[in-house]
Write a structure and sequence with these properties.
340 residues, alpha+beta, Elongation Factor Tu (Ef-tu), domain 3, 6-stranded antiparallel beta barrel, 4-stranded antiparallel β-sheet, 6 helices, 13 strands, rod-shaped
């Protein structure tokens, strides 16, 4: 019984040692070579429409390569186009009003207003003469030559003629001065408001097209034509072609051997004879517990440091989450830093 317990304990210790050896690296007999194991990591972009609407078309499938600016999806824009036409017609009408106010009255309109004033002045002169004539007759005949009614009618016509002349003079003055400055300012403000409304509608129309922001590979197609979508619902998930890195974990005892900018060699099980070059791009300044992928309790209590190996993958052989083996030659350190 004791032998079984001892044997079981030896196996557990061996498994724990093997896990720690896998996690923190090995040197394959060369003290200057540090071997680490991890997984490929790639940045992703979730693409969604800015506005709510119904998806009209989707142009790419999962696995397709897309270029920056490529059209990926569109929304139904029939209602927006009708609103755009309405705003454009309103803007045309308001712009024409402003032009008329700036141009003022036409020469023909001024000639007409002057002629109407002359006509009113002639009517006033006639009314004056009629009143003078009737008053003269009334005075010479002791009020018997004309009736009181005729005299009142003549005086009434005179007042009407005077008012008509005043009206025509004011109308001519208004036409010569043009509209009030406050009215011009108000009309110009209406034009600007309609222009802003039209620009907003045109912006919404442009946002009804979903385009790729970068060169990438379509990782997931999450919706289909006819679906209702919005800003909170991603349509596509894109995996960026660059940058790529391998995330590995470094034991504290090896922390002093690894520097930013150090050259690295990355291989995968799929292409063991085709290594990919890389550099140490990031070394965490904070220790953390061993990742959950290591299941033994002994290893989960170890503190390790995250290291990112930025790789140059022109042939695009590395895939997200793919296991990879990283080899570092600690004898040939390079002090140059690389960005992430």
């Amino acid at each position: 019984m004791n032998k079984k317990i001892i044997a079981g304990g030896v196996i557990v210790v061996a498994i724990a040692a093997a896990g720690l050896f896998w996690l923190t690296g090995k040197n394959d007999g060369d003290k200057n070579v540090l071997t680490l194991h991890g997984n490929v990591d790639i940045r992703q972009v979730s693409l969604a429409f800015e506005d709510n609407g119904r998806i009209s078309s989707l142009a790419v499938e999962e696995g397709d390569r897309v270029r920056a600016g490529q059209l990926l999806a569109t929304l139904d824009t029939r209602a927006l186009k009708i609103q755009e036409q309405q705003a454009q017609a309103q803007l045309d009408a308001q712009t024409q009003t402003v032009r008329e106010q700036q141009a003022g009255a036409r020469p023909e309109e001024l000639v007409q207003a002057k002629a109407q004033l002359l006509s009113a002045q002639a009517q006033l002169q006639k009314a004056n003469e009629d009143v003078s004539r009737i008053q003269h007759i009334s005075a010479n005949t002791a009020g018997k030559g004309v009736s009181r009614q005729e005299l009142d009618m003549a005086r009434s016509n005179l007042r009407i003629a005077q008012a008509s002349v005043t009206e025509r003079q004011a109308n001519l003055a208004l036409m010569q001065k043009g509209v009030r400055s406050e009215q011009r300012v108000a009309s110009a403000a209406q034009v600007r408001a309609t222009q802003a409304q039209l620009a907003l509608l045109q912006y919404h129309l442009s946002q009804a097209e979903l385009r790729s922001p970068v060169d990438a590979v379509v990782r997931a197609r999450l919706q289909e034509p006819g679906d209702m979508t919005g800003p909170q619902k991603a349509v596509y998930t894109l995996a960026l072609s660059k940058p790529k890195w391998v995330r590995v974990w470094l034991n504290e005892s090896d922390l002093g051997r690894v520097k930013s900018g150090m050259a690295a060699r990355v291989v995968t099980d799929s292409f063991p004879n085709k290594p990919v070059s890389g550099k140490v791009g990031f070394i965490s300044s904070v220790a953390e517990f061993t990742p959950k992928s290591v299941q033994t309790e002994e290893l989960r209590t170890n503190l390790v440091y995250e290291v990112r190996i930025v790789v140059d993958d022109p042939n695009d052989v590395l895939r997200m989450g793919q296991p990879a083996t990283v080899t570092l030659n600690t004898q040939t350190e390079k002090a140059s830093d690389v960005g992430q």
